[in-house]
Amino acid sequence: MWLPYRKLVFYGAYLRQSQKEADRRLLAEYDLASGQLLWKEESPADLNRRVAWTLWSLGLVILPLLVGRILRWLGYDAGRQPHFPDRYLGSLGAVALPLLLGLLLALVYEGVSSHLRSQVKSVPAPDQATQRAILSDFRDQTLRFNGALPGRQRPYLVNGLLLLGYLFGLVPLVWRLYWQPVLLSSFVARLGILAFLLSLLPNFILTLLLKSWVIQRLLRDLDQRG
């Protein structure tokens, strides 16, 4: 049975110098329920599908703007007065709908991503040195962003700033705009953008918390076995 966010993925595509098989696109898929680590190898077609899906999903942020523009073009705003969100949806609906839409978008993205990963063929686990190199590179380049400042090591600086800007800057700003009185077309656009931003929260949590903890655990296990 498929469960959302049950599996964490660590991509080795960033690694080029320390990976022995540098032309291969290896990824490690960790099952949180069983604690098993499965290795897979992406073909060029697998990589193209993953990139295309990521770009397409990010492009969804344009959709509510287009819907709002269409509503305005169809004349739904003609002769109407701006209203607060609770006038359109009720007090409970105005709060619950962006949260539910954000959750739905997050689950759809995770479901499609899981389906695409299921099509990637499994391969035997590489030797321990290669495993450690891939996981260490993913941690340093993707989670910690150690090279964000030239010549300085500032672990988690980039992701930390992104998370702070997201939680205390972008989301509160859009949430405040969402609660302003607007016409129907603008309300739909703001609702969609807010839901999209809220859908990113699970990925931020997975990246900064769960993945950081799991990858340290995996590296410790490799050291103990080595």
**N-to-C order of helices and strands:** EEEHHHHEHHHH
| Rg from alpha-carbon coordinates | 21 Å
Query: What composes the largest sheet?
Result: 4 strands, antiparallel
The total strand number stands at 4
**Structural class estimated from helices and strands:** alpha+beta
Which percent bin holds the helix content? 55-70%
Integer count of domains: 1
Distance between the termini: 35 Å
Beta content comes to 5-15%
Topology:
Elements: E1 7-11, E2 25-31, E3 37-42, H1 44-58, H2 63-73, H3 85-89, H4 91-118, E4 121-122, H5 128-143, H6 157-178, H7 184-199, H8 201-225
Antiparallel strand pairs: 1-2, 2-3, 3-4
3D structure, described in words:
The chain crosses the membrane at residues 53-76, 88-109, 156-175, 187-210. Keywords: Membrane, Transmembrane, Transmembrane helix. It is a single chain. This protein has 226 residues and is of the alpha+beta class. It has one domain. 61% of the residues lie in helices and 9% in strands. It has helices spanning 44-58, 63-73, 85-89, 91-118, 128-143, 157-178, 184-199, 201-225; strands at 7-11, 25-31, 37-42, 121-122. It has a four-stranded antiparallel β-sheet. A hairpin with a 5-residue loop joins strand 2 (25-31) and strand 3 (37-42). Helix 1 (44-58) runs antiparallel to helix 4 (91-118) and helix 4 packs across helix 7 (184-199). The two termini are 35 Å apart. Mean pLDDT is 84; it is low at 14-22.
